[in-house]
Design the sequence.
């Protein structure tokens, strides 16, 4: 439903005033909670235990009366073979798609969608992609995982909703992908994780292909927060000669949020589809949406039929921006600071993967910026943290030991923790799939 002039995909929604957004949220919240309680024993019991009736939830502020829910609750309810679990609200004969979250913090969670849910998913995705510069007729290679996960089929269809010529390539077969791109006369784009752009450049180098000759001119990146690390975006853009744009999304609700040309945070794309609350991750206290505020985001569906979510903690820590954006979109903007469940604590110091990556990027081009932390025993972490770091191809082996010491010294000076650094060759960590930065093997997590 692109509007003219072509600054917005859905101008009516993307330029609502704050007051208009709140009225829309309140109206749809009232309808959604009534629906949830009428169709789900889980949600009825949840409100009963809180001493709240559906009729009392009429405004966004009323949500604070309802306890949070966790993704693990839904995943656990599916462990006995139940297809969709405790938050299924629509009958199975109206559910036409089942996908799963990525399971980066535990068991993947299955999610059902009705036809209207799928249409909403495509609408929100198109808003984000339009902000990122994608247009009808653009050629885009979709290089996310089509095996169950939203980044594949469902995200593919957001490009189709917008009108892009979308090629369902998937993950793996990087050599074939490069040769196919290079064999086309027209410039192309890619939908992938940012670390895959790094990996793909390494494969090109191994094949003797100059990345800029491939014709990859636009990158639509999601699944990782790498583009928010100073130097990482620039490295990808310089390597490929492309424009790289960032997108945030959630497998549970979609909520695609795209970065406009101003590059001053991603625009929340879920207006009218979900409510975002900001909370203190420790106390659970609701925080005001004021410019620069930091907190954990909590999501509530307000237009979901199959598997709605009611105050689901995301564990994504973000900083929000509410000052007007020159692009004209009026939704709040944000940048991801990290995940509370990716954070690890070393002798009382909170360490986030994005902070580690930022330190490594200041050592580029000698290191690629790719890394992995493997924690093999439960807390406390009172020992040097095992850290594997990719070294650039042209760094002589004789210099590796000194470089590893330099990495450790920088991390100690800037982040105040001690690391046991091991250097590995380029392409060892960055792969075709989402790169997992922190792996806790003592929990049964597996290094991919």
Sequence:
């Amino acid at each position: 439903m692109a509007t003219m002039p072509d600054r917005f995909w859905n101008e009516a929604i993307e330029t609502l005033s704050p007051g208009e957004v709140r009225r829309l949220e309140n109206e749809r919240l009232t309808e959604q909670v009534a629906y949830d309680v009428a169709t789900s024993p889980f949600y009825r019991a949840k409100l009963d235990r809180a001493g709240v009736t559906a009729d009392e939830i009429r405004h966004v502020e009323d949500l604070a009366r309802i306890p949070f829910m966790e993704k693990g609750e839904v995943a656990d309810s599916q462990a006995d073979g139940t297809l969709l679990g405790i938050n299924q609200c629509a009958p199975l004969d109206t559910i036409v798609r089942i996908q799963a979250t990525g399971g980066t913090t535990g068991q993947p969670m299955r999610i059902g969608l009705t036809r209207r849910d799928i249409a909403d998913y495509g609408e929100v995705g198109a808003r984000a992609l339009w902000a990122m510069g994608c247009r009808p007729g653009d050629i885009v290679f979709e290089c996310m995982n089509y095996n169950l996960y939203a980044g594949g089929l469902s995200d593919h269809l957001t490009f189709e909703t917008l009108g892009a010529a979308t090629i369902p390539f998937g993950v793996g077969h990087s050599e074939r992908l490069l040769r196919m791109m290079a064999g086309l006369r027209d410039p192309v784009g890619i939908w992938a994780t940012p670390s895959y752009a790094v990996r793909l450049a390494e494969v090109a180098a191994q094949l003797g292909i100059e990345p800029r000759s491939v014709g990859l001119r636009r990158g639509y990146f999601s699944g990782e927060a790498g583009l928010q690390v100073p130097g990482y975006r620039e490295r990808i853009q310089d390597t490929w000669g492309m424009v790289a744009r960032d997108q945030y999304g959630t497998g549970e609700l979609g909520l695609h949020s795209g970065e406009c040309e101003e590059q001053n945070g991603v625009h929340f794309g879920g207006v009218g589809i979900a409510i975002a609350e900001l909370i203190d991750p420790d106390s659970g206290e609701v925080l005001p949406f004021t410019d620069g505020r930091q907190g954990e985001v909590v999501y509530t569906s307000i237009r979901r039929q199959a598997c709605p979510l009611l105050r689901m903690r995301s564990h994504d820590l973000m900083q929000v921006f509410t000052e007007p954006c020159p692009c004209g979109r009026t939704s709040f903007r944000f940048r991801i600071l990290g995940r509370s469940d990716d954070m690890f604590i070393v002798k009382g110091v909170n360490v986030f993967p994005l902070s580690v990556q930022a330190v490594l990027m200041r050592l580029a081009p000698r290191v690629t910026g790719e890394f992995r932390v493997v924690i093999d025993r439960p807390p406390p972490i009172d020992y040097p943290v095992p850290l594997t770091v990719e070294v650039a191809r042209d760094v002589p082996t004789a210099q590796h030991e000194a470089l590893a010491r330099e990495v450790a010294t920088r991390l100690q000076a800037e982040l105040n923790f001690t690391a046991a650094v091991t250097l590995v060759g380029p392409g060892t960590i960055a792969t075709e799939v989402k790169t997992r930065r922190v792996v806790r093997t003592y929990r049964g997590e597996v290094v991919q």
About this structure: Residues 1-337 form a domain with the Rossmann fold fold (CATH 3.40.50.12780). The mean pLDDT is 93. Residues 12 and 364 are 44 Å apart (CA to CA).
